[in-house]
């Protein structure tokens, strides 16, 4: 039975590039074969529960602008009936868009209880409700996670909190979320350390807090194996906000942390485009680095407003950026347990229910165009050919010997001095390669 929130809406269909229908796909054809695989299976789209259904439209300078029927009325309580209505609308949208996955935090899907025991019971109840919806629609869970940042108890962090009772409370919360994620067949479990950082060293024991975070993550991995959870454990890097210094700043920082605690073979990363930008990187840089380190897992898809200095979580609309991102995803072998989660939200003035559909349709089409361009670039060796040519000298026997340990510093020096080697710079051809990318998009 329809909730009527979106009106009389049919499933969004692929109508091709010439379509002007705002409620149709122009580039995303789930059954189209791209590089030997269905487009849907390449992209593995997921809808984020929090931005689409839990966010009220506020910002640092103003409160709620969205009026959703599942939001508590002024002065009223958040109830399980409202949570179930929210789920009904959510699965209507997932089904209309034809996206195969969704993602959630515990706090997105159930009202907060007076005690942790009550909150967990409510999450379990909604988990049962989700299970029935998933059985009915075929929608799957890409990943679950715990909100360890919104409540005031987490103002000084969760795993890194100076109060061991907060650490314990967070651990119990994560356990409950992993349990529900496993029960729903989730492909991954994500830990986002929203407040795992610090504002000032004046009141922070940095070494102690990192050790706490390391033990917390180790316990999560141990529990995963104990209960037989087959999904991947993911960390989502995030620089700066909300705390000034984050322990999970970027992919490189997270990898160093994983190495320190012997978890580099147990945990992968969920990389967000907007977070990459806030860290001073490009999205493709973070993807390529994660792949090269063996920790690439999944992605959160959005974009930032480059005129703003914070995480604006807008829907993607830059095809060249998406082409370079999916180029790195394909080079990494594509997704296994991961996927493309739209961690993106409407603008505060986009009030109509259809805006939710239109925003996702546009983002999905943008990703589809990027994927197709990336696949063509790989097939044509448009970028890999020039790259191989640039590093071709390292295929020579003497070059290999230098890297393999067969040559000492003295031997290399003697060869250069005796042969009179005088290297001549060669063009990196950056502008040419940028033009190549633009030919494909």
Mind explaining what this structure looks like?
The protein has about 450 residues and is an alpha/beta fold. The chain folds into two domains: about 15-380, TIM Barrel, CATH 3.20.20; about 400-440, no CATH class. Helix content is about 45%, strand content about 10%. It is built from 16 helices and 14 strands. The chain has helices at about 40-45, 50-55, 80-95, 105-110, 115-135, 165-185, 205-225, 250-260, 275-280, 285-295, 320-330, 355-380, 385-390, 395-405, 410-420, 430-440; strands at about 15, 25, 35, 35-40, 45-50, 100-105, 140-145, 190, 195-200, 230-235, 245, 265-270, 295-300, 340. An eight-stranded parallel barrel has the order 5-6-7-8-10-12-13-14, surrounded by five helices. Strands 1-2 form a two-stranded parallel ribbon. The chain has a two-stranded antiparallel sheet with strand order 3-4. Helix 5 packs parallel to helix 6, helix 10 (about 285-295) packs parallel to helix 11 (about 320-330) and helix 11 packs across helix 12 (about 355-380). The longest helix has 28 residues, at about 355-380. The radius of gyration is 24 Å and the shape is globular. InterPro entries: Xyl_isomerase-like_sf, Xylose_isom_bac, Xylose_isomerase. Its cofactor is Mg(2+). Keywords: Carbohydrate metabolism, Cytoplasm, Isomerase, Magnesium, Metal-binding, Xylose metabolism.
């Amino acid at each position: 039975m329809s909730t009527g929130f979106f009106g009389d809406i049919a499933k969004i269909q692929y109508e091709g590039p010439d379509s002007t229908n705002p409620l149709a796909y122009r580039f995303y054809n789930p059954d189209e074969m791209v590089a030997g695989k269905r487009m849907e299976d390449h992209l593995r789209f997921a809808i984020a529960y929090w931005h689409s259904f839990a966010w009220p439209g506020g910002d640092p300078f103003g409160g709620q602008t969205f009026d959703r029927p599942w939001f508590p009325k002024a002065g009223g309580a958040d109830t399980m009936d409202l949570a179930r209505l929210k789920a009904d609308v959510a699965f209507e949208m997932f089904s209309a868009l034809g996206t195969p996955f969704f993602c959630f935090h515990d706090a997105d899907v159930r009202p907060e209880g007076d005690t942790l025991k009550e909150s967990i019971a409510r999450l379990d109840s909604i988990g049962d409700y989700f299970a029935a919806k998933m059985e009915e629609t075929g929608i799957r869970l890409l990943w679950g996670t715990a909100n360890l940042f919104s409540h005031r108890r987490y103002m000084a962090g969760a795993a890194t909190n100076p109060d061991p009772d907060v650490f314990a409370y967070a651990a119990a919360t994560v356990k409950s979320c992993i349990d529900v994620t496993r029960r729903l067949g989730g492909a991954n479990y994500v830990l986002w350390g929203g407040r795992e950082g610090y504002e000032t060293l004046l009141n922070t024991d940095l070494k102690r807090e990192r050790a706490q975070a390391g033990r917390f993550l180790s316990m999560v991995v141990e529990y995963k194996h104990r209960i037989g959870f087959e999904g991947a454990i993911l960390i989502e890097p995030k620089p700066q906000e909300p705390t000034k210094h984050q322990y999970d700043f970027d992919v490189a920082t997270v990898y160093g942390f994983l190495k320190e605690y012997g978890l580099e073979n147990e945990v992968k990363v969920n990389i967000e485009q907007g977070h990459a930008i806030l860290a001073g990187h490009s999205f493709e840089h973070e993807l390529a680095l994660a792949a090269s380190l063996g920790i690439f897992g999944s992605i959160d898809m959005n974009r930032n407003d480059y005129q703003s200095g914070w995480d604006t979580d807008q829907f993607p609309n830059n095809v060249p950026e998406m082409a370079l991102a999916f180029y790195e995803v394909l080079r990494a072998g594509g997704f296994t347990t991961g996927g493309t989660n739209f961690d993106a939200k409407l603008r505060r003035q986009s009030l109509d229910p259809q805006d939710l559909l239109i925003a996702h349709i546009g983002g999905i089409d943008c990703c589809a165009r990027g994927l197709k361009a990336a696949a063509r670039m790989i097939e044509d060796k448009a970028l890999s050919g020039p790259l191989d040519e640039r590093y071709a000298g390292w295929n020579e026997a003497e070059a290999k010997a230098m890297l393999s340990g067969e040559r000492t510093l003295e031997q290399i020096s003697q060869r250069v001095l005796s042969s009179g080697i005088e290297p001549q710079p060669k063009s990196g051809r950056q502008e040419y390669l940028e033009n190549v990318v633009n030919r494909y998009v």
